[in-house]
């Protein structure tokens, strides 16, 4: 039933913006040795393309989507991304974590834990100021926004 709600929310005005780009990176969960691909949706400020000329670094908001750990995608919070871009001018990166029941808790949190150091380690590539990172999330994502730093 919740998936139907997620589907219908895409029709509300204003339409959510699609991500500027998506990137995938392999991750390995240390406890299990399991390998997975972690996707992130990037929403970037308008002047982002000029960053290499100016060697500009942007603050980053790392978003963890809601959905009760069982549904949702990194593209669900496009409206929130647009608001952050407009108000803060930060890069907005939404993490698509693996979902239960196929991947039971705490898999989602482990994915969040892997995403943050990966972004920091690749900050030059992404134009991120790794000293200016913030976490956001709604519902399950809010839970992860609190638990991910604790796991780090």
Overview of this protein structure:
The protein is of the alpha/beta class. It has a single domain (2-151), classed as Alpha/Beta hydrolase fold, catalytic domain (Rossmann fold, 3-Layer(aba) Sandwich), CATH 3.40.50.1820. The chain is 36% helix and 28% strand. It is built from 6 helices and 5 strands; from the N terminus they run H-E-E-H-E-H-E-H-H-E-H. It has helices at residues 2-9, 51-54, 78-88, 107-121, 123-126, 140-151, and strands spanning 21-29, 34-43, 58-64, 91-96, 128-137. Strands 1-2-4-3-5 form a 5-stranded mixed beta sheet, sandwiched between helices. The longest helix is centred in the last third of the chain and has 15 residues, at 107-121. It comes from Stereocaulon virgatum. Residues 61-150 form the Alpha/beta hydrolase fold-3 domain. It holds the Pfam family Abhydrolase_3. InterPro entries: AB_hydrolase_3 (IPR013094), AB_hydrolase_fold (IPR029058), Carboxylest/Gibb_receptor (IPR050466).
Short account of what is shown:
The protein is of the alpha/beta class and 152 residues long. It contains six helices and five strands. The chain has one domain (2-151): Rossmann fold (3-Layer(aba) Sandwich), CATH 3.40.50.1820.
């Amino acid at each position: 039933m919740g998936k139907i709600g997620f589907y219908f929310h895409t029709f509300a005005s204003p339409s959510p913006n699609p991500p500027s780009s998506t990137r995938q990176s392999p991750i390995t969960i240390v406890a299990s040795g399991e390998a997975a691909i972690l996707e992130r949706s990037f929403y970037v400020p308008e002047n982002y393309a000029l960053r290499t000329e100016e060697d500009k670094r942007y603050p980053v908001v790392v978003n963890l989507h809601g959905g009760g750990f069982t549904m949702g995608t990194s593209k669900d919070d496009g409206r929130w991304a647009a608001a952050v871009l407009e108000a803060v001018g930060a890069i907005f990166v939404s993490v698509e974590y693996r979902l239960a029941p196929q991947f039971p808790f705490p898999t989602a949190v482990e994915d969040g834990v892997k995403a943050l150091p990966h972004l920091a380690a690749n900050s030059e590539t992404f134009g991120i100021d790794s000293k200016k990172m913030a976490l956001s999330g709604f519902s399950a994502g809010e839970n992860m926004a609190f638990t991910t730093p604790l796991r780090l």
